[in-house]
């Protein structure tokens, strides 16, 4: 049982369909109107049916005021890390510190290669991601006036000027499932962002332990890594599956995930305003209340992340 | 050298010191000041200008966005990013490709890949094996909202050659003094020579000059002085050096303001004078040779009216993939005209009627009988005429454009507690349905969609715009209600809509093994049912070893649970129920369909009919049809009720006695037609929107006796040349046995 004591955040995972671009933007605005904290879009640049996630994120940032934004998760193999770092900082500056950087190592290698990207093995892809995180942080470090050089196995930076510095400490979140990627998450990331449908619940404690251990080895507190979760479900009459039932059932199940496994951010896959509204108006407050009550009982020390 | 392009002005803005907000604000100011375009460069502190441009797209509504993607990005990703920006910005994106001097070859490859990705009308995957860039079987698309111009930024000889050969525009390096102007002349000549080598007209290529200057009270050098100095310095750039676009750098709001207010109008006037003197006619760069190479025979593209040219889509245009096909029909029209006003509809009809090719009229693109796409012909797409407005709350009178979709209509009426029974699917467009019938979820209670029609405004075959209602052009108004597609293009409908609250929506799955009995019992139950119940059934091909199932959908126009149950009970009892769901929903929720585009292939094969009763004979024949596997989608909708209150001669929709409407979709006309023809004795009429058989008997089924005679007389009066013919056509030349008397 591990609750890292983070405050709870709630968001949406909206399909970036390009057939109706302004409906996608409207769903992001509904997310903000529903009082939710975060709007996210998947990033599959090889998918012809989607809007370019970066362009969309920037557009949506300009049409919202409060909500934070992230790719869920950005496809590293088709987005060079130095460009990604500058783009992320630029968006953070424009949006007043509302951008967060979810990154994935890539997985659909046939499609990546079809687009002209480089095919890597899963192990290489994690190593490349590790290099990329260093490059991203190096670019953001605008106080360091030295030219930025990296001669990595996967990425090279040839004496670039650093900057811009983002407006706030952009969180780097990784979509991780396998031990190597979980270790990278613990060592270098600010958030772990898997999707519930792909997770083996029986392994959750073990996954958290891998992250915790890697964090400690890197001299970090385990609580430095926020545990986040993409979730899908249905509102309606209660069913056997997780998150299938009235909002109260969702709240109980999400609160349990927080108290048992330390998750503190829930991102709902939702492409309709009704789900977004219910998640914001009913699930989020009820979950917060349940967690606060239980934490008070346990007297958990709130984390700072 | 003056290519005669219209003058355009822009602001070139810099992200300074890592502060992007001020640049974004200047972009908004530039739009307010009337500038035509904005472009960004990163200052000494690197920043991502694509992000800045995407942000700006959301904060502006008119300016064109000259956007450069990071040079390190993969060109296939760049193509999708640019298409996305264009879709979000509704067709305002232009793509700048910049590179180091040595990058000419790499940029040339990038252009090929970018354009290849945009060519979504081509269904083959994109492969490109270049020296610098490779694509290995990428899915193409999305198509941008418009054909995005590609600009080359740079003055290296290789880049100038590339601009001349392949680009839509060239960004010249900053012009800093009069001497620099001379160097530009050589660059222009290099571009023109490269264009000529490729058989391109040099006028296809836009030329943009970056300028910067200061307003001072006394002249002090190039672009330094009062507005008159600026005009004098810039005029030769237009008249002698081929520039018609200028972007002003400097990031100074006051300079931007003075330039817009004091230099731009004076320069426009000076250029107009000079062009008049020299006999230079002004015209925007037309479509490129690349786009023109995809044009089809038989259409005089150069004669497309100026009002329609910019929004028209032709096969070489990037947006073609989105407009070529419809919901059920693949097509490859030679030209899609997209008028945005009734006057533009008139322009479109006048133009189209002079062209010897097919003509389709498209509202939502769901037409089955109405051919709203074709091969090599013209389509007039009225989707931009989609306004929905309330005219009078007391009488619930609303005005709706033909390009609105019924989903949008339902959503717009819902806040008033109103609804207008339409079809059973919200993705259908208003125009094609409201001129033909409209058998929807509330038809038995509230009648056909066209029964709610009070007036139309429409453009006739000769391009004239008329109003038709019970008093004005009353005979035309009669004909529009059931045969509207034959007489013109309706540009707005006025309906009186109904008060409708939440409704009961049921979905049942029945075991219909005893199909004939099932149909008879359902038919009898529907005829006996109160009018607030409307339902339809759908059956597919039989599956070996499984019971034959029928899906039923029903709407009860009541939010009262007991009423809903009372209405559904007799229906539920007609056969063994395998599954069901019943919900109370807003009518708009049943109609809700997110907007999207169509991309069907092939040609639908359907037959349709109206029937008064599901007699034992008809039910048995239907069982044989479905049982033989000749239709993969067989639907019967209940009608009757309020639709039968209207006398058959009151509108051109004559099938008032029918309690049922039938449609069968098949794969093979040769297989479906004989089977359906054998069922004809059981039918009482025709519902034109679902019938694809083109034999003339179908027209006589839909418009029996006097109805056809009246329609023929109307057709001869309003469309004697048969401009509107790719529909359920009433041929003006055909003779009726007994002439109509009107």
TrEMBL record, chain A:
GO terms for molecular function: monooxygenase activity; oxidoreductase activity, acting on paired donors, with incorporation or reduction of molecular oxygen. CDD domains: Tetrahydromethanopterin_reductase. InterPro entries: F420-G6PD/mer, Luciferase-like_dom, Luciferase-like_sf. Residues 12-231 form the Luciferase-like domain. It comes from the Bacteria. Keywords: Monooxygenase, Oxidoreductase. PANTHER family: 5,10-METHYLENETETRAHYDROMETHANOPTERIN REDUCTASE (PTHR43244:SF1), PTHR43244. This is Luciferase-like monooxygenase. It comes from Nonomuraea maritima.
TrEMBL record, chain B:
One of its GO terms (molecular function) is oxidoreductase activity, acting on paired donors, with incorporation or reduction of molecular oxygen. It comes from the Bacteria. Keywords: FAD, Flavoprotein, Oxidoreductase. Pfam families: Bac_luciferase, BBE, FAD_binding_4. This is FAD/FMN-containing dehydrogenase. SUPFAM superfamilies: Bacterial luciferase-like (SSF51679), FAD-binding/transporter-associated domain-like (SSF56176). Residues 328-500 form the FAD-binding PCMH-type domain. InterPro entries: BBE, FAD-bd_PCMH, FAD-bd_PCMH-like_sf, FAD-bd_PCMH_sub1, FAD-bd_PCMH_sub2, FAD-linked_Oxidoreductase, Luciferase-like_dom, Luciferase-like_sf. Coiled coil: none annotated. The keyword Cell cycle does not apply. Belongs to the oxygen-dependent FAD-linked oxidoreductase family. Its cofactor is FAD. PROSITE patterns: FAD_PCMH (PS51387), OX2_COVAL_FAD (PS00862). Transmembrane segments: none annotated.
